[in-house]
From TrEMBL:
Protein name, UniProt field: DNA mismatch repair proteins mutS family domain-containing protein
Keyword ATP-binding: yes
Lineage, broadest ranks: Bacteria, Bacillati, Bacillota, Clostridia, Eubacteriales
InterPro entries in the record: DNA_mismatch_repair_MutS_C (IPR000432), MutS (IPR045076), P-loop_NTPase (IPR027417)
Organism: Clostridium estertheticum
Assigned GO CC terms: cytosol
């Protein structure tokens, strides 16, 4: 009975898959990759997936029609449900092992269609240039794909002799958004999609991020320990000799300032020496002093804000150097917190 209920429940889904497979089989693809992919839709006898799943769809359709007054009488006489179960089991034996392959093929084609739509909807985005050699990312007018007309684009050039960007800046100035901009465009580039930039060049790297870490009460894991586990994976990959791209947003923010500074310096030193490429955002301005270390491949960048008539504004433009501004006191006052002995913002 459970088998019949399942067949009835998913009858409409089976019809949908049948129609999708039929549409795919009718199309004449030119791409060699897609042509080879669609070979999974035919069995050794040349029977198409739409016909194979069509046989199952007809069984499900008949089962779905059993909701009538006459059915209980006919079923008790002819044992209809017994014959339906036999039909389902025969289909499973003959074609059931192919079903997962059909679904994977549909999923792969849907993913490819999604990538194709990106270029259609964003004709001015550029195709990335994937190169070999030492790790690098070079971009011109790169922006966040999801911000639309509100995006602010930046140029980026990270290559030898530098490999680690330390990004400082006040709250809400754009540090985290910039790192997400790098990350999402790298993912688009690796997927073969256009990127939100006028030009984009990068090497293939193993991509790791440590951003927006939260605790896990179910597993009794604090946010700091969850961060440590992610960083452990980055360090492990680096020690294995992989080309690693890492994004570290406000690392070790869950601990005291002294240990945070010490731990961040040790981590950046270790990662910069192994030829990896990465971005580290921080409020710890002392961390930016690592650029002065001769043996480290560290370069400082920052985001800043400016004020007009005692109101704060952000330009979200990436600049070379260390952040000269802070806005924490201003934001506290904006929230109604009384802060004594503060210089007036000009």
């Amino acid at each position: 009975m459970e088998t019949l209920n399942m067949a009835e429940k998913y009858n409409d889904d089976i019809k949908t898959y049948k129609n999708m497979l039929r549409h795919i089989e009718k199309h004449k693809f030119k791409s060699e990759y897609i042509v080879n992919l669609c070979k999974n839709l035919y069995d050794k006898d040349g029977k198409s997936a739409s016909k194979q799943i069509g046989d199952f769809s007809r069984i499900c359709e008949v089962i779905s029609d059993r909701r009538n007054m006459i059915y209980p009488i006919l079923n008790s006489i002819f044992m209809i449900e017994y014959h339906w179960i036999i039909s389902i089991e025969k289909w499973k034996i003959k074609y059931g092992n192919n079903f997962e392959g059909w679904i994977n093929t549909i999923g792969e084609l849907e993913a490819l269609c999604s990538i194709a739509v990106i270029k259609h909807d964003n004709p001015y985005w550029s195709m990335p240039n994937i190169v070999t050699g030492p790790s690098k990312i070079i971009a011109k007018n790169m922006g966040h794909p999801l911000l639309g007309e509100n995006r602010v684009c930046n140029n980026l050039k990270v290559e030898a002799p530098y490999s680690v960007m330390i990004i400082t800046g006040s709250n809400m100035s754009g540090k985290s958004t910039f790192m997400r901009t790098v990350g999402i465009n790298i993912v688009l580039a690796y997927a073969g999609a256009p990127v939100c930039a006028d030009q984009f060049c990068c090497t293939i790297m193993d991509f790791y991020s440590c951003m927006r870490i939260s605790d896990n009460l179910g597993q009794s894991i604090s946010s700091f320990y969850a961060e440590i586990l992610k960083i452990k994976n980055i360090v492990k990959a680096a020690k294995e000799g992989k080309q690693v791209l890492f994004l570290l947003d406000e690392i070790f923010k869950g601990i005291n300032s002294r240990d945070r500074h010490t731990g961040a310096m040790i981590l950046v030193k270790q990662l910069s020496k192994t030829g990896n490429l990465g971005f580290v955002s921080t409020h710890d301005l002392e961390l930016a002093e690592m650029e002065n270390h001769r043996n480290l491949k560290v370069k400082n960048y920052y985001f800043s804000e400016y004020y007009k008539k005692n109101e704060i504004y952000f330009d979200y433009k990436l600049k070379i150097g260390i952040s000269p501004t802070r806005n924490e006191i201003y934001l506290m006052r904006l929230a109604g917190i009384e802060v004594e002995e503060i210089n007036e913002i000009k």
